[in-house]
Fold:
Amino acid sequence: MAIEVRIPTILRTYTDGAKAVEGSGETLAELFADLESRHTGIQERIVDRSAGGELRRFVNVYLNDEDVRFLDGISTKLADGDNVTILPAVAGGMR
Structure:
């Protein structure tokens, strides 16, 4: 099962600069574990183990352009050909 994962600039140091990588898994949790096996350190930046293995608060993950927080979160099921996009939340601005 091939799933394309789009990597934000801030996490590309873990993927040797690749903007997108392929992974596999039946759920997002399995996909992130698979990515960790080839891109050591990336899972820790996405998943908060101290929060029961949920997505980090300031990381947004989209499955085929739909926010996984409105699906099943880290337990969201995946299918062959899906696209997963990881986006860090951005805050701040001018007064």
Remarks:
- The first strand starts at residue 3 and ends at 6.
- The beta strands are 3-6, 20-23, 47-48, 54-55, 59-63, 66-67, 83-88.
